[in-house]
Amino acid sequence: MDTDFIPDETNGRLLRDAFSKFASGVTVVTAMSEEGPVGITANSFSSLSIDPPLVIWSPSVGSRRFPYFENAEYFAIHVLAADQEEICFDFAKSPFAFEALEPEFNAQNVPLLKGCLARFECRKHAVHPGGDHVIVVGQIERVSMQDGAALAFFSGQFRALDPN
Question: How many domains does the chain have?
């Protein structure tokens, strides 16, 4: 190992760099708020359970967007395709980045993005404290998926992950 450290308040950047060694997919989580449809880019997403069908994601409580998702009873998690990097950046900049996307809305009025590899439409099942984040557990009510290359994030860079 090249770097060895005990995590503390002085080396948060190193800890973030260590976390980046885990390759992850990239998602956009959407919900309806009092200000309209909102979205947030997140790579803190994982499957949790098949029976019942559950997923988790973890928004930062310090995020300006946290209040939009803290109160959302319904939300959708969109697994981005390799050609959707711009959507990732748009939602990283603004929670209201729907202008050019023409989202559809489900029966619970959650905005749904098109062209994603997978979409999980969820109802909030539980929320648990997790340090400077919360762990949101979603009960999956509907799934949509298609084939294609995934948008992946590894060591601070986006990459296309082709299934072939």
Answer: 1
